[in-house]
Amino acid sequence: MTVPREAPRFPAAPEGNVTKRVRLVRTLLPPLIVLAVVLYELLVSQIGERRTEQWAHVAFYGLVGPLVTFFTIMWLEEGFVAREKAERELRHLYGELRASHNQLDTVQSLIRTLAEAADLEEVMDVAAQGVMRATGATHACLRLAGGLERAARGNTLLEAPSADLYPLLMPVTIGGERVGELALHFEQAPPGDRVRLAGALAAEVGTAVEAARRRAQDLITLYEVDQSIRAERNMRRLLERVTETMASLSSAQARAVYLVDEDGVLRHVWAQDVNGQTRRGGRVPGFVKRAAVTGTPLEGGEREAATVFEGTRCVLGVPMHTEERLIGVIALGREEGQGFEGTRIPLLALMASQATLAVRNARAYLYSEELAIGEERNRIAREIHDGVAQSLAFCALKLDVVERQIGKDPARAVAEVQLARTILREQIREVRRSIFALRPIDLERFGLLETVRRYVKDFGEQNNVRTHLDIRGEVSVSPSDEAVLFRILQESLNNVAKHARAREVTVRISGGDQVTLEVGDDGVGFDPALISDRVSSAGGLGLMQMRERIETRGGHYEIRSAPGHGTHVAARLPQA
């Protein structure tokens, strides 16, 4: 908080020679005059000659008295002149102090406003206006590398500086490197103190420009980290990316990650030393445990750094935690320097918070995958039990009938064999459909569009159906949205293979404000109101579940069908 300073007041004139002289004259002159007159009269009374006494009186009272008065007045006048001179000097000094006070207020206000500026453009606007006011220039122009420029005009009618004005050009530097210039124009040649003030303000502007650029770079870094976290579901690669960015910001050559497991034990997960060698597992150093306990970034010296990374001289431990519990610790090590730059530690802590959220999401994703695998296993078991197993058992019964009837009623035996063959072929197709739907798809490797091309082509060949794929516009969605769209495609095509008895299927993907996936067939169709929550046999999702997956991501799911008129499925998600 800045305490406002009181404006300087006009100082009282000190008690000078004039006052002393007036007091001296007022105190001593009357007694001296009386004493002089008395002495004079005593001396004159001794003359005895009247004419001489008269001339003596004339000389004394007509000449000596005025001379004494004259010299007394001159003596007093010298004091008055000195006092007036002192008062003029005091007034001049007061004017300089008041101007300096106003100038200092302006400079302080400029520095404070520069520090509070949100971005580079605001810094340039504030700098041009503030420097112009602080220096009393008529025009000010701040130019930075890259073509950035801001100008300000004072109380003048001139839109631009004229040739009659006095120019002053001050360089704007950052770390000794010139990044721009501050051009000022004055009505009169600026004095030396004004030039020095302009140079100091140019240095402050350079500092503010550097701070604004650093803040912008920090925001870009945070955005890039956030995007990489959103795009990555593999925890190991995710942590490698985050720690790589943190190491780059802090000039660290070594990095390590320690995570708390499901039993609450802090364990070493991954590390990279100063030589670029990676390792997993191992003991947890005491320094890392202390950083976990403190809950705030902790710096360590050379001795502690050696326990975490060999060949480092300083170490920084940044805890990852939620409001409820500790998630882990990220450790960074440097080969040189006495410590980490304090101004970067808050940014590193913020990035660790982003990594905390990413770790929790990755763990939730892994847990959901485990649940999905378990559910998929249960579904496959149900399908084998309810579908393939019962069909095979039925075929076994038919073959038993054939065995008994082949000698008595060959025609019936042949019919039973044909029925069993038909059932077996249908179950073979069903098993192939299930295997096709369950086979792993590498979306991360091929991307959404190439994966769709491969899948649609294989689907047509597998199910003896004509397929058409139409891709229009630019398609850009997040990796998780890609997975959802592809899952909808899988479910829709699986339903076509299992229920539609279609001869032709059309798949269309189109970009725009939204990404739209459409799957249409010329099959038998159905009434959506009657089977909206039916679960498919191969994919495990019904129509209701597909709708919920799309709508929870801000999209829209629509299905149109009628008996004998085929089916059309449309899923829309916002572009990334």
From TrEMBL:
Role description: Member of the two-component regulatory system NreB/NreC involved in the control of dissimilatory nitrate/nitrite reduction in response to oxygen. NreB functions as a direct oxygen sensor histidine kinase which is autophosphorylated, in the absence of oxygen, probably at the conserved histidine residue, and transfers its phosphate group probably to a conserved aspartate residue of NreC. NreB/NreC activates the expression of the nitrate (narGHJI) and nitrite (nir) reductase operons, as well as the putative nitrate transporter gene narT.
Enzyme Commission number: 2.7.13.3
Gene Ontology molecular function: 4 iron, 4 sulfur cluster binding; metal ion binding; phosphorelay sensor kinase activity; protein dimerization activity
Top-rank EC class of the record's enzyme: transferase
PROSITE patterns to which the protein is assigned, alphabetical: HIS_KIN
Keyword list, A-Z: 4Fe-4S, Cytoplasm, Iron, Iron-sulfur, Kinase, Membrane, Metal-binding, Transferase, Transmembrane, Transmembrane helix, Two-component regulatory system
Protein name: Oxygen sensor histidine kinase NreB
Cofactor (UniProt): [4Fe-4S] cluster
SMART domains hit by this protein: GAF, HATPase_c
Subcellular location: Cytoplasm
Residue intervals passing through the bilayer: 24-43, 55-76
Catalysis: reaction(s): ATP + protein L-histidine = ADP + protein N-phospho-L-histidine
Pfam families from the UniProt entry: GAF_3 (PF13492), HATPase_c (PF02518), HisKA_3 (PF07730)
One of the record's GO cellular component terms: cytoplasm
SUPFAM superfamilies named among the record's database cross-references: ATPase domain of HSP90 chaperone/DNA topoisomerase II/histidine kinase, GAF domain-like
Ranges of residues in domain Histidine kinase: 379-576
